[in-house]
Amino acid sequence: MAGKFVRKSFADINLADPFFDSLKADYPGNENSRGFVEWFHNKAVEGKCALVFEDDQGVGAFVNLKPGEVEEIKLKDGLSLPPAVRLKITTIKIDERYRNRRIGEGAIGLTLWQWRDLEIDEIYVTVFEKHASLIFLLEKYGFLHVGDNLNGERVYLKSRRRLDFSDPCKAFPFLSSEIDHAGCLAIDMTYHDTMFASSELANTLQERIDISVANGLKKVYLGSPYSLAFEVGDPIFIYRKYTGRQGRPGYKSCITTYCVVTRIVNVKENGREFISYDEYRHIIGNKSVYDDHELKSKFDTLRNLTLIELLYYGYFGAGNNVNWKWLKENNCWPGMHPMNFRYSREQFEKILREGKVDVSNVIIN
Question: Residue 259 region, left (φ>0) first, then alpha (ψ -120 to 50), else beta?
Answer without folding.
Answer: beta
